[in-house]
Amino acid sequence: MDIIIKNITLGIIVALMLSCNAKRSGETDMKNEVYEKNTDPSYIFDGVSLDGWETTNFILPGPVYVSKGEIVMEMGDGCTGITWTGISPDMDYQISLDAKRVVGSDFFCGLTFPVNDLFCTLIVGGWGGSLVGLSCIDKRDASDNETTRFMTFHNDQWYHIALEVSKGNIKALIDEQVVVDFNIGNHQFSVRSEVLKNIPLGFATWNTTAALKNIRLKKSSL
To answer: Are 119 and 190 spatial neighbours (Cβ–Cβ below 8 Å)?
Structure first.
């Protein structure tokens, strides 16, 4: 009996040691990730606060807060979002991030961005959860222009989104798949009235809870 008790005790001690080591490893990884974001100027979300961002003053938004290294934008009645308060380039730049839909069935990433002296929005997961495209091109929104496409998105799954705006082109990728490759030419760009308050650069959801992380803004190519 004494041998059995000793073996059980030893097993508990080993399990606790492994648990503590795993916890310390996780804490170290989190600290390293936060350090990288605080020292790399391309990160415009530091993983711990909304410094550099303001909660967008939509009509009936849900709460916006930071939790576990993510910006959570909870479902509102219409749009919930954040707007960048720093300097926004108007051309030759790249924005990338990871985004996921937590609850809801509409767009979980409406990325409003500058194009020269105009603005446009990349919609990811609109119109019931599957629409991808640019709103608006020549007054036609993402459901009715050359960039319209449909994809499947799952709740609680992260998607890596990258957008590049260059002198002649707008390109967007989702998980390294090109979803928009549009020649700017003489086209006119605009945003829908719902997301006007995200100008010049911001993110919005529609009747959906979403999370964002690893937001970067830099001069580079996709």
So the answer is: yes
Q: How far apart are the first and last CA of the chain?
A: 65
pTM beyond cutoff 0.85: no
CATH architecture of 53-218: Sandwich (2.60)
**Structure confidence by residue, pLDDT tens digits, 147-175:** 999 999 999 999 999 999 998 999 999 99
Buried-state track 28-37, b at ≥16 Cβ within 10 A, e below 16 = eeeeeeeeeb
Distance CA 107, CA 142 (A): 11
Q: Secondary structure of the chain in the HEC alphabet?
A: CHHHHHHHHHHHHHHHHHHHHHHHHHHHHHHHHHHHHHHCCCECCCCCCCCCEEECCCCCCCCEEEECCEEEECCECEEEEEEECCCCCCCCEEEEEEEEEEEECCCCEEEEEEECCEEEEEEEEECCCCEEEEECECCECCCCCCCCEECCCCCCCCEEEEEEECCCEEEEEECCEEEEEEECCCCCECCCHHHHHHCCCEEEEECEEEEEEEEEEECCCC
pLDDT tens-digit series, residues 101-157: 999 999 999 999 999 999 999 999 999 999 999 999 999 999 999 999 999 999 999
